[in-house]
Amino acid sequence: MASKDRIQKLKEDTRLNILSASLDIAKEEGWAALSMRKIADKIDYTAPVIYEYFANKDAILRELTRIGYVKLATRMEEACKLSTTPEGQLEAMWLAYWNFAFAYKELYQVMYGVEMNCCTALNECPDYSKPMNMLWDKIEEITPPERRNEEYIDRKYYTFWSVVHGLISINLTNQLSREEINREVLRDAITGVINSIKN
Description:
74% helix; elongated; 0% strand; mainly alpha
């Protein structure tokens, strides 16, 4: 490997180590405990080295938020392939959204501000809107032509999101019921909204 390539790989490895250490701290102590000094201590670097890669803690949170949206979109794309009908695809994508929230709890928290302040400047993140657009497009696809307008589809998207995100938030902050009951409530809610669109 050429010297230039080695240096670039070392830089990318260091950047990834910083992000990984940030997630580890969040898992162990919560997002409120995250600081540049703690990250530096975790990976045995000095704080100035961390600042070479990220200007501040918000920059780290923004990058983790971007990574979260990329992972979420990938999972939703994979889930969409599990069904041949638009209704089945929409349900599969919302279930993938649900599963993502619990598989990547800390990323979901930073993406949506669960038990913490939401990451700022989300509109600057081009990956932010991809999962929402995928769901929006699928809702548009199942909406009868006579009701197919932006206001109606927006309303149905936010109806879905309010129910799914609300149930996730309740469970991330305070486990109130068993997993199987949560899944039944989730499926009932998704099916109910889909039926309200089609009928």
